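Per-residue structure
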Amino acid sequence: MTEAQQDSNQPVESNDGARNVLDLGAFVGELTDEDDAASDDFSLQGLEQELEDCKTDDVVSMILSKGSSLRDYTRDVENNLRQTELESIEDYIKESDNLVSLHDQIHECDTILSQMENLLSGFQAEIGSISSDIKILQEKSMDMGLKLKNRKAAESKLSKFVEEIIVPPRLIDIIVDGEVNEDYMKTLEILNKKLKFVEVDSMVKTSKALNDVQPELEKLRQKAVSKVFDFMVQKLTALRKPKTNVQILQQSVLLKYKCFDKYVILFMKEHGKEVYLDVRAAYIDTMNKVLSTNIRAYIQALEKLQLDIATSNDLIGIDTRSTSLFLRGREPLKNRSAVFALGERINILKPPSALIKELKSYLFNAHLASSLVSLQEIDESALIPHIAEASSKKYPYEVLFRSLQKLLMDTATSEYLFCDEFFGEESMFYDIFAGPFLVIDEHMNTILPNCFDAIGLMLMIRIIYQHQVKYEVIGSSYLSSVQVLQHPHSDSFKFMYLNFSYAYLIMSRRRIPCLDSYLDKVNISLWPRFKMVFDMHVNSLRNANVRGLWEDDVRPHYVMRRYAEFTASLIQLNVDYGDGQLELNLERLRMSVDDLLVKLAKLFQKPKSQTIFLINNYDMTIAVLKEAGPDGGKIQMHFEEWLKSNTTIYVEELLAEHFHDLIKFVKTRASEDPRSGSGQPITASEVEIIVKDFGSRWKAAIELMHNDVITSFSNFLCGMEILRAALTQLLLYYTRLSDCTKKIAGGSALNKDLVSISSIMYEIKKYSRTF
């Protein structure tokens, strides 16, 4: 509201305190006809259309329904609007005081807000100043933190330097006067660090403190090396004492603490190289002599337990009757069978699959007694000579050989792991065992030239092969067989030992290669000797005195039995190995024995005796080969073919002996057709003689055949098979004779003399029931 308006309203407000209503009509005026006339100037174009559109409008419809003109109605509307406007203006005038008050309030608010703006601006300036101060403080704090960090780092290095370079009195006392024990080893570790710190750190070398400390450290180093050397010499001296258990001393003293090699041997290596080399050389020399002496004594003790199985005269083709009795007086007769037969000697090579089953049973049942009985012999502990000697037991050489190799391998494994763990040098093993290997080589060079036991040699070859393939241990989990057997709690230690020895079957973690070259060398020495002894057997058959070996007896010859047992033994020893070279040698041996057997058979005057002799020997050989294993291979098949062919020959000879006319007629005349007219026809009289002869004595002849077979063949089952084959062949011959009789003229008259086929079949079945 302007000031002019306020002045114009002032007199109205002062009239008796009452507000007069203004006459708005004087200001607005009234509508006149000129205004209506002026409205005629508007265009009426489109009015009709608008009217049409307004028909639907409710207001227009209401006006039209009342009959009022639009102009009148419009004037009423405008008057209403003007009146409403005037009323609204009056309402605003009535509220003018409130509007003024509101204006004043707004002005006051503007003033207050302006003051607040000034205050906040001051706050903002102060906050900016504080932020600048905080930033400065932050920079100072970071600078102080960096200085603190640097000072801490300097303090750490300085404290480390001081700690490493000073020599505490306690360290000096222990090094100089202390006993070599666990505390001494820890002190050695501390001294070792100080010496390394002085030698390695270049900054220390320029320190003035080093000039004061270095002489003392050098004296301590020399004293420590000297003391450790004396300790090692003392222990090495203990190793030289008789009856000292080396493994127990190594484990209970030298390896008592796992860190011993780290603190003692490493200390000597780094700070007393010359002394370490002296200790190393002394240990190698000591162990070389100790182990060589022990193995030599063990070999000498084993030699007293040796059972001589074969001599140079124990060959397949040698006549035992020509061998002097004095040469055999030293051996029991029952041991002679072991020359060619494997027997229970195979137990030393028990199959690994059976071992695994037994091991599982042993571990899960924890039944020590029963498990020790069924252990695989090749992995059993070495023999204890004085115990075996006290029991007056003798063993084939392969048992002693296995025991020697077992002792060597246990000792070698223990020593190899000790050298690796204690000295950190696996190469020392070969220097230490140069002497023991030489002792064993001398022993083998003495034994092998006098060994004529081919089966024993092959067993030793298989033992070496299994050791090469399977000998593995787990880390340091080992106990030597000597330690196990000498321990007072032998059963408990055997349980531990078996766990360690067989652990490679469950968890193969570490391969011990130290004996590879040795095992190869032994294997190379065994094969030529086996080949030589095997060739001696072959040559004994090739050069055999046939007349001297021959006996007027159709039963299996002892030379053939030797061959069968010898071949079966070697075949059994080759089952899991598939050695082609051994198979070729066995084929050579088979060819030689074939030639000898044929020569022996030809010395019989009667062909029938020759055939019986061959059948008996072939049958015996096949039986022996089958006992050794279900699969005899090519050799068994060869003898089965010869047995079959000679059985056929014998059947024909046996039938020809008792039914000569029948067989001759069937073979020569029965196949002819009587009605063909070619050649001389078969007559009834010719056949009648044969039919009546057969009918009169066929049962007696079969009985004679049965007796002949029973007395001729040593194997009853084989003889019965041959008899059944002979009777079956006889039935075939007689069937052909009967068929021929029906075809000839007048043959029907002979039907009364023919023996029925059913009768012959009954007789055959009667003899078949006997087996």
